[in-house]
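User: I'm putting together notes for a lab meeting next week and I want to include a structural view of one of the chains we've been expressing. I don't have a solved structure, so I'd like a prediction I can at least talk through. The sequence is below, exactly as it appears in our construct file.
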Amino acid sequence: MKVDIPKEETIKQSQVQNVISTIKPIIIFENIFGIIRFSVVNNELEPVSVRKKIGGILIASLYVTLISLKFKDEFKIHHGSYLVIITDIIPSIMVIIQYGACIMASSLFVYEPTRCILYNVAELDSKLHITINEKFYEKSRIRLIKALIIFIMVHIVCVSIDLFCMWTEAMEDFICLAGIIMLYLMYLEQNLQMLVFCTLLYLCTIRLRVVNEYLSVFIHEKDEIKTQIFNINEKERKSDKQFNFIGRISASNTKLRDLADMYNTLGVTCYLSNDVFQFQIFMTLLCTFINVLILIWDTIKLYRNPENYFEILIFDDVIWCLLTILSVAVLCFLCQNLLTVRHNTKLLVNEIILNYDLPRSMRIQAKVFMELIEAWPLKIFVYDMLSIDIKLMLKFINVATTYLILIIQISHI
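Assistant: Thanks for the context. Below is the predicted structure for the 413-residue chain, given as structure tokens.
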């Protein structure tokens, strides 16, 4: 599907800068891992320079090299126990593949769709009059910073617990310890990609809520006009009214068509976001599933052969299971939240369609709006195989529980 980028002359660069400033904290965090999606030169978006691309590749090579040395030490630690080595290495290899693909994509493929996403959001802000509210971007930035701080703190706590539980003499070696730290950073980067994607979903969700707010205000004020004769003190509450974007009822009013066009822009933005992060979502789901299976297997194995630190190791496995599931749960929750807001949009537009007191032209615009809502379901898919919503989380827990029961039965045999 080819999507046209909005014309730059129709969008002020200051509007794009407002959007970039909102997500700037997470962009800086991405740059630490060598992931550079675009450059800002003279307040304008530009492709990533060759120097920055090479720098990102060198950073990725350093991470992979240190982790590879850590893999080499795995054979010494486990003395050729290949089953144990494989269960330890497979999740790490998958994380490295995801990281390498992300580095390559950010250097070669994602500039145009990322640029289109930012310009679409800036265009929406201009049409929705969000730029009038000076604190809108500031509040969004503060929320993102809070989410980023919580994200880092949770990861630090889990890593600290894991290092405490799994400390061995081999980890006293500097190279091995550096490789382990790099591996933890890879897991951090994987979850960071989900945080970036969740941020884009959040940007789309709050703007769709603004569209719903405009529809709600129009419906509410229309109902007030119909019952105005019974409300003697109505004039006293006019100062509390919200901004009526659609305006008065008229056959020449085309504001519903404008809102439908904004929804279409939102649909394109969600599609591009899904396309850019599709591989990262797939690898995150796959790594999470494999990690949970391996952690369950390790827990059963430890239970069958308990050692002095059995309780601590079990606690460590539970912590990592919760962390891996948490990233998927947050993703599913935000996707479901976007679908819920879209459902509210559908109900509001349907209420306008069924109001036969409105002019025919306005109801036709509402019907076109409804067709766009059906055309853009705002669902996030993984290669058209999985739909990311709350049902996926329930299926994930169901499969993990089934596997746990199966492993328990096999271990008794």
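A couple of points you could mention at the meeting. Strands lie at 39-41, 44-46, 380-382, 386-388. The chain has one domain: 8-225+246-412.

User: Perfect, that's what I needed.
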